[in-house]
Write a structure and sequence with these properties.
The radius of gyration is 27 Å and the shape is globular. By secondary structure, the chain is mainly β. It is built from 5 helices and 48 strands. A 7-stranded mixed beta sheet has the order 41-48-47-43-45-46-42, with no helix packed on it. Residues 132, 517, 605 line the site of copper (II) ion (CU).
Length: 662
């Protein structure tokens, strides 16, 4: 696979003085609007590149990847090596999907590994269409990626052949596991035939023996999407009927059958895939693991304190939202059914101080009925009890909102942890014009947890990207006022939210608009990477189809331009135990005021659920800085963390990668 080091674009600099003089002369002579705008652009560039501006508002750098590495970045993750994984899969490009699906050409499915410290970039083989998969960093340091796309959305005007969902049943408990290839034919009682669009696997029936000859057979089943062989209306049906499955003989024809319908030319939603992989950050390859039991498109993968991972929500392989969940066994690399729960796609689920309980903030990204799974609350995944919480405003404007666990109190060094979740912005369900600037915060450890209002976002936004920083603020950027940036409704402004003072500080404007299919990540060096954007239209009048934004943009905060950042000597990566003390020498020893552990996180669809900042405690002994790690497993579970030390001006170090192993 090709790889190279590329040079980022030369930064825009101020012109020499004689050119400035020439420009001013030209302006004095002819003051046409064009000249004025060129002049103001020049003046703007000169301003944003000035020390005064950068050291107050920070600085954005736009990165255009070399041609063969360009991709529609929809998924991104920081790996324990500090490198960035960017995944497009088919990249919301149906042509790519068709090429892969029909010709098996995987080069149209894209993944790159990018090292932001060297600008080294490398293409990686993508084994299946990971577009809209779920992903999360496992405690081992591998990135689990589950699901993706097995079919693209089709609108009624593009649908020729009637199609619909089919459930294949098997009533024989003594049968073997069967695979039904893509193209398997299903025949309706009236002789009309349909073929499957995916390969599926069917288990034998389950025999339940209660003793004394009391045996019950539970038929097994699997879902598949089928398409009529013909185009005329006789293939339509409004009812559910029994279908014969081709290729069966003898008793199998009675035991195995399809139950299908309705067959229609209605809109077909995206269909999920059941493939799963662990991305190995050392070999930089995808390693196939067991298929999920359910296909999932837009699933969340929360990690529990003990390292177990639950796949939640998503559209199944027939395009219907699933209420099933399943556990990933990180040792056996296989899946087993979890508790059923109706939640919209990419639900925002957070680990809590109770190892059996996840908190659902109400944020989600894209699909699901309005009347199910929209209320925030605590979900005990062992008992499947859900306890709702009150206080969250604009409950009907939560789709594409952002949720994060807030950082510890600003600059604190006493080990106080934050257990507060913030919900910001959002839009109405689907292609809705509703949008809000609401920000509500809940303290998960309060005796009666309720959301309470915080200071509003500077503007009403969907898809705002929130990133938790080592200097105990939340950096916000991007977002649009309308669904999928309709009407070019981008916000280019950025802010830093200080939860301790409940205030926003305006930061430098980004160059690139970011909305649907965008995300942000905290890099190991303390900068913030923003990727993706997938507008419906590219013009204000919503007439020209949108183009996927392939440029990346990296933000450097203002304090990094103000004097020396703290540095820690010693190895860049190490194992450690909870409760341990780590000693480092540092030339800036006395300036270091706090230490934070932030996991390398992953982001997609403005959803980044594993980012959280854990407070460690700093003390100074002789010429060393001592960092005491929390001892509580619910505060610091096993896994990888970026350890940052921070000075009084919020300048953070380049992070040490710490693997908590016990
Ligand atoms: Cu998507």
């Amino acid at each position: 696979m090709p790889e190279l080091n590329f040079k980022p674009p030369v930064k825009r600099r101020g012109k020499p003085f004689f050119m400035l003089l020439a420009t001013l002369m030209a302006l004095l002579i002819t003051s046409s609007p064009v000249t004025v705008s060129a002049f103001s652009r020049w003046r703007h560039n000169r301003m944003i590149n000035s020390y005064e501006y950068k050291s107050q508002y920070g600085y954005w750098e736009t990165l255009t990847l070399p041609e063969e590495f360009k991709l529609n970045s929809i998924h991104a993750a920081v790996l324990p090596t500090g490198k960035i994984l960017l995944i497009a899969g088919s990249g919301n490009n149906q042509q790519n999907f068709n090429t892969w699906h029909n010709e098996g050409l995987i080069s149209v499915l894209k993944t790159v590994v990018f090292d932001p410290s060297t600008n080294h970039i490398k293409l990686v083989d993508t084994p299946s269409d990971l577009f809209c998969a779920g992903h999360t960093l496992m405690q081992s340091g591998n990135l689990l990626i589950a699901g993706g796309t097995s079919g693209y959305e089709l609108l009624p005007d593009k649908i020729v052949k009637p199609a619909g969902p089919m459930v294949i049943h098997n009533e024989n408990p003594d049968d073997q596991v069967r695979t039904f290839k893509k193209g398997t034919i299903f025949t309706r009682p009236d002789g009309k035939q349909y073929q499957s669009v995916q390969e599926v696997v069917l288990e034998p029936a389950h025999k339940e023996d209660r003793g004394r000859g009391d045996v019950t057979i539970h038929a097994s089943s699997t879902k598949v999407f089928v398409e009529a062989l013909g185009e005329d209306d006789s293939f339509l049906s409004s009812t559910n009927e029994q279908y014969a499955v081709s290729g069966l003989t003898g008793i199998d024809t009675q035991n195995i059958y399809g139950q299908g319908g309705p067959m229609s030319r209605n809109k077909q939603d995206f269909r999920g895939d059941n493939k799963a992989y662990e991305f190995d950050p050392i070999t930089e390859t995808y390693v196939k693991v067991g298929d999920m039991k359910e296909s999932r498109w837009y699933a969340s993968l929360p990690v529990l304190t003990n390292g177990e991972i639950l796949a939640v929500s998503g559209l199944d392989n027939t395009g219907i939202i699933t209420e099933t969940t399943e556990w990933y066994d990180t040792t056996a690399k296989t899946w087993s059914w979890g508790p059923n729960m109706a939640l919209p796609t990419y639900p925002a689920l957070f680990r809590t101080q109770n190892p059996d309980v996840l908190f659902y903030s109400g944020s989600s990204a894209g699909y699901g009925p309005a009347d199910k799974g929209r209320l925030p609350g605590f979900w005990n995944v062992r008992t499947n009890e859900f306890t709702g919480v009150g206080g969250l405003r604009d409950l009907d404007i939560l789709e594409t909102s952002a949720s994060v666990v807030l950082p510890p109190p600003k600059g604190s060094n006493n080990g106080t942890q934050s257990n507060k979740v913030m919900v910001a912005g959002g839009g109405g369900i689907g292609e809705s014009e509703l949008v809000t600037n609401r920000v509500d915060i809940i303290d998960l450890l309060a005796s009666n947890p309720q959301f309470t209002p915080a200071a509003d976002l500077p503007e009403a936004l969907r898809y705002v990207n929130l990133t938790v920083t080592p200097w105990d603020e939340v950096f916000g950027t991007g977002g649009t006022a309308d669904y999928r940036s309709k009407g070019n409704s981008y916000s280019y402004s950025s802010f830093s939210y200080n939860p301790t003072s409940n205030t926003y500080t305006q930061m430098a404007d980004a160059e690139v608009g970011r909305g649907y299919h965008s995300g942000s990540l905290l890099l190991r060096d303390g900068r913030i990477l923003v990727f993706g954007n997938d507008p419906l239209y590219s013009d204000k009048d919503n007439t020209t189809p949108g183009i996927f934004e392939q440029r990346l943009e990296i933000y450097t905060p203002p304090q990094f331009f103000r004097g020396q950042r703290p540095e820690l000597a010693g190895p860049q990566s190490m194992e450690a135990a909870r409760g341990a003390s780590l000693n480092f020498t540092s030339p800036q020893n006395s300036t270091i005021k706090s230490a934070r552990l932030i996991p390398p996180s992953s982001s997609t669809h403005v959803t980044n659920l594993e980012q959280r900042s854990v407070a460690a405690v700093v003390s100074h002994i002789n010429h060393e800085v001592k960092i005491d790690l929390p001892a509580d497993v619910n505060v610091l579970p096993n896994g990888w963390y970026m350890l940052f030390v921070v000075d009084a001006d919020g300048r953070s170090s380049y992070a040490k990668m710490i693997h908590i192993v016990r």
